[in-house]
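Hi D.,

Good news: the full-assembly prediction came through. Inputs first.
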Amino acid sequence: MRIGTILAVALCACAAAFAQEAKSVEKLAPYYPTPETVVERMLKLGGLKAGEKMFDLGSGDGRIVIMAAEKFKADATGVEFDADLAKESSARIRSLGLEKRARIIQGDIAKQDFSSAALLTVYLLPTSNSKIRPMLEKQLKPGTRIVAHDFTFQDWTPVKEEHIEDDGEGRSHTLYLYVR
Ligand SMILES: C[S@@+](CC[C@H](N)C(=O)[O-])C[C@H]1O[C@@H](n2cnc3c(N)ncnc32)[C@H](O)[C@@H]1O
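Then the structure:
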């Protein structure tokens, strides 16, 4: 076989594998950012402390990760499958000089390991919370806090709820704090 043919076959195999990988990511929610005022309330409700590891599951433009690292001095990781959002948020982290405390993993929430987390923040659809719940139950160490925005985790009982009547733009929000 000629070298050109070998290269073409290898490239096709790579592209097919990549397409398969991309297809296998299940979209757990559309991109719908949490207002900054609510982000702060989520991190306060989660009792985030300096140096603690936190993860935002589906990190969008990175606003939760950035506030966690910048204002709360936490060690913050976002997981986001959308390539543009992951790139944009990583660039913002770099431009703010937060690389030591903040990062974005471009990948699938369902394929991550959250066992080192002290706090998780979650703004996904109710059905998606049910899908990832068994994985979190297996992975999370006792005492891990989870703050869910607007949608509960079925079968888990929140230790605290916070209602925000108006976020400044006329929208109301409810936050749920769980402790594993
Ligand atoms: C409602 S938005 C929340 C964004 C951010 N956490 C916030 O509160 O501002 C949900 C995000 O999850 C991302 N997402 C959905 N399914 C995902 C998956 N399987 N793996 C990684 N990210 C995912 C979407 O692309 C979107 O950015």
